Amino acid sequence: MRVLFAPDSYKGTLTSVEVARALAAGWWRARPGDTLMHAPLGDGGEGTVYAIAVSGGWEWQQSGVTGPDFRQASARWLRSSDGQRAYIELAQASGLSLVDPARLEPVGATSEGTGELLRCAIDLGVRRITLGIGGSATTDGGAGLLRALGAQMNNDRTWIDLSRLDARLGETHLRIACDVTNPLLGPTGAAAVYGPQKGATPAQVIELDARLAAFADTLESATGRRERNTSGAGAAGGVGFGLLCLRDRFASLDMVPGIDLVAEETDLAVKLAGADLVITGEGRIDAQTAFGKTALGVARRAQAAGVRCIAVGGGVTPEGIAALAAVGAQAVPASDPPLPLADAIAAGAAPLIACGERLARLEP
Question: In the predicted model, is pLDDT for residue 291 greater than 80?
Fold first, then answer.
């Protein structure tokens, strides 16, 4: 068999590169005669930067930034070998994994560090930037990011002045790699869907949604753009919304599905065409998978190519199983029986190696 390993990262635990290697190592134990191919992926969220780096032609950069909890953080990003392009990952500067789980601040967390990374790239002469906006710790509507780019606003974000935005944005082409389709507000918005995983209580979810609504009124009035209902506006706690409102300030600004962008960078279509089976996966396969996560993106492409697809999840729920079954893919847990989250994290790659071997032994 020709088996393609094309997983996302397991957030906060293993990069997509490490996940692909672990699953392939287990498969090789059972079927050493098979041809194994790697295409580690991402959807714009945490760990995507490593999948992009593996594709080649990039150089690592490192910058000090303001973390989501206002503590100093060190963020890695990619600059192309010719210096013309950059890939920046929000999760490196404003990510949930940067915050101690015991010190989560869902209301106060800032996206400022991501704006600082954009400014770092622009300072180095980069004018074509791709920004992956998944995995955030923030629900500030992108207010912190806008501040880092020169916007001025009061603390409750009911007043904003964009006259001092960095003029170089007008020379900058920005592609936003977005992994979800949520609007900014309401029951499927940034606060309601993603606030709880960032530590928000039910009362804080209501507060965050109200804050986002007030900020939306202010920013849309200042820019003349109504973006709150645009697909992806609710991504990364509303960072999608904040940037979409600045569309006219950039030379160009496009929001694209993260999986599409990474698939292009890693030649996924070519690799799929040469495979009999593709094994994808992510840390959790659940209701959010249906909003456009990596596993669903790979499964759709596999179905179109006539290639069987299995998705391995650190956690798997009935909603996730249904989302993948709708496009002909099978979802399986990495561990059988499933491990508690803390135990799975402590186990590292071992459960995935065992899973790869288990899947291989089921093949005829």
Answer: no
